[in-house]
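Aim 2 progress update. The chain analyzed this quarter is reproduced below.
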Amino acid sequence: MSDHADIPEDTESITELSVEMAEALSKSEEGALYLSGLTSLSDTAAEALFKFKGDGIHLDGLTSLSDGAAKALSKFKGSNLNLSGLTSLSDTAAEALGKLEGFDSDLESTLWLDGLTSLSDGAAESLSKFKGPCLELNGLTSLSDGAAKALSRFKGDSLCLGGLTSLSDGAAEALSKFEGECLVLEDGILSPTERQKRFG
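Predicted structure tokens:
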């Protein structure tokens, strides 16, 4: 994919990312970068990587993300950012990701965070400000009333919460107010009309 000697043809085989390699990858003309082999990402490598001009960056092998790396990736101007390997996210990192600059509501843009199993009210509030059409949080098994209320304010088309195994009456009432086209829960996709029938 690149003339850079240190970049393998299969970028998913990369397990460590130096700043130099990140800079080389950022100049790639590929449509998307697939870097699922990475389990960690330094702040300086993230600062180089966000300059990639393609549609998506897939970093679903990362299990943690520093606040600095999150702030760097929030400047990515593509359509899709896959961070589904993250099992936790600080409020500061969530605030950064909620401000992703490049996501155009006219594109099928998605922020994948399917590895998260819990979400603070503050992080939910920040992620609800994500500007893309689709927010994927299918790893969450429960949601506080406050987090549900925050996510219900997400202005995109699809809010994906397919992993929820329990939902309080308060959280269900809050999610019923989500105005997007699709609310994805464990037992299926609910349109606005179906949400009103179920939760109204």
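Residues 11-199 form a domain with the Leucine-rich repeat, LRR (right-handed beta-alpha superhelix) fold (CATH 3.80.10.10). The beta strands are 32-34, 56-58, 80-82, 110-112, 134-136, 158-160, 182-185, 188-190. These observations will guide the mutagenesis experiments scheduled for the next reporting period.
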